[in-house]
Amino acid sequence: MRAIKGLVWFCFLAIGVSSCFQPPEFGIAPSISFNRIEFKVTPDISDADSLILYLDFKDGNGDMGLNDSFRDDPYHERNFYFEDVANSKVTPVGTVLQSVNKPPLPSPMPMIITPPTGKLVTKRTRNKPGFGFLPAFNAANLECRDYTTAHLLIAPSAAGAIDASYNITDTLQDTGGNKYFVVKDTIYFERNLNHYNIIVRFYQSTGGPFTEFSWEDELCTTFNGRFPVLTDKNGPLEGTIRYAMPSFGFTPLFSIKTLRLDVIVKDRAFNKDSIRTPDFTLQQIRVN
Asked: Tens place of pLDDT for every residue, the chain, 288 residues?
């Protein structure tokens, strides 16, 4: 069973100022309201069905949307962590994307530039006193959650986060002779929710209380996503976001269940608003 991340289409009205028109006053935090939800079934079994969510929105300064260029901290995809031995906790750290011109190394590569509070957290950290709260390594979850073996670049400013016990696969130098370390270890991570500007949580019921269905836990995917920058101008903005969530799993998972969604929409300053959809079944909202 395979799920596909959400796709987004949108229409909007950017409201300008003229001598005969006074633009409306919206707050700087986005305001969203439920418009409707549809379930579209494709006739070709090789294509995914789609759950399509329509949200009306208003925003006072127009800072809505994230393009693909928004990949550096604080919009990075994954949080990594430094050890805080004194307090037996871990401290999140973001990344920036760094171009690397050395095949077969990936380019770009996430790079940590933040000066460390302690060593970079790996699966070995769990064996240290005070860090037993970290999740145990499970190969079935590798890359989906908890741990990754993807390449990570450590900038000179963060070099204290690693030592000879880490699997350092390469060392790079810039034109100034500064050293950058390529690490490919079993590194602890969590998804950074600030990477997304629309967050969707699914709840299901078969007649009793609603319980959350976690796409990440069940299928190693997410319907959290992004809609692109809606305008390059400051000022009031309103319109409708059409957010399509394609998946082959909707009918087999939810055909006899009642669903509801919790949805959060954020602007680039992380101001946010949320709604809960009315309860629905797939049959009730089917449009074909």
From this structure: 444 445 545 444 444 433 344 556 789 999 999 999 999 999 888 899 999 999 999 999 999 999 999 999 999 999 999 999 999 999 999 999 999 999 999 999 999 999 999 999 999 999 999 999 999 999 999 999 999 999 999 999 999 999 999 999 999 999 999 999 999 999 999 999 999 999 999 999 999 999 999 999 999 999 999 999 998 888 999 999 999 999 999 999 999 999 999 999 999 999 999 999 999 999 999 998
CA dist 227 and 44 (Å) reads 27
| Same domain? 130 vs 97 | yes
pTM of the model: 0.87
What gap in Å lies between CA 246 and CA 197, rounded to an integer? 18
Q: In the numeric block, which tokens belong to residue 186?
A: 């079993």
26/118 same-domain check: no
277: left (phi over 0), alpha (psi -120 to 50) or beta: beta
CA proximity to 254, closest of 276, 221, 284? 284
Contacts of 9 (CB under 8 A, 6+ apart): 242, 244
Q: Identify the domain containing residue 240 by its residue range.
A: 7-66+197-285
Query: Which residues lie across from 252 on neighbouring strands?
Result: none
